[in-house]
């Protein structure tokens, strides 16, 4: 029968473990409250770094509990080795899916190749970025659908990002050798100018057997109207060339038609051209991406205001501090309202 001293000694050996468990519970609870619970409506984009911190704290807490166990050093090393083996196995089995996408998401946040609202081309997918998630990136396509692209797909394919400061749009067409290239070039430049494209230029792309391939390009300053501007450029090219008696027709069709040689196939322009309001097409197609970009910009503006107000608070006297604190509370409420609205919309989708 064990003596009282041995029982007391065994009980005392568990005291460090008990203290460690209490400290781990308190620290993890406080950290979870400040890092996660207080920002639960921030969405995956803002919670990503906080979740990584909680994961690191949990692993450290687990190691602290193992070191506090009243066991021999060899047994402790075996437990640590077993946990390391389990973690390595989890990473190995999930490396092609969850873990790989997680690492890809971290890489995209470090390199920052694009932002919310940018036009991107990844493989065969083209559209505007709606959200950069923890495991995938959501893109709104030209047909208004939302496509969730895994982050591994994003980093294994070249990403073409349309610059917000402006991009080059272009269109190509083939014309016969009977029209001099200088006349075609001047008319194509006129069409690009009518579309309000800056610095337009014309390339003679190719000299085919029966036609010349021209390409008219110009810089579009307002990239949000990218889709409608391409349509407008094509329309202006048709209007300008047809208005100047230049025929756009396949050479094979020209050789086969039974018409007089001086006859031209040019559609008759209506007296009043119907305005198709194509400028509104972009807002209809990329509505969610537009909202996401505006909210992102609004949040950044509020964050800057918050930093400025905190600086003013540190330098203000007692009379001004109360009013500055009220303004800080109002800014925080606006940020929280934006985060709550974003979370509600994501759940509604």
From TrEMBL:
Topology in membrane: Multi-pass membrane protein
UniProt-annotated location(s): Cell inner membrane; Cell membrane
TM segment ranges: 12-31, 52-72, 78-104
Coiled-coil regions, chain positions: 288-341
Keyword Signal: no
Record Gene3D superfamilies: 2.30.30.60
GO cellular component, one term: plasma membrane
Entry keyword Lyase: no
Family recorded in the similarity comment: Belongs to the MscS (TC 1.A.23) family.
Task of the protein: Mechanosensitive channel that participates in the regulation of osmotic pressure changes within the cell, opening in response to stretch forces in the membrane lipid bilayer, without the need for other proteins. Contributes to normal resistance to hypoosmotic shock. Forms an ion channel of 1.0 nanosiemens conductance with a slight preference for anions.
Protein name, per record: Small-conductance mechanosensitive channel
Organism whose genome encodes this protein: Aliiglaciecola lipolytica E3
Higher taxonomy: Bacteria, Pseudomonadati, Pseudomonadota, Gammaproteobacteria, Alteromonadales
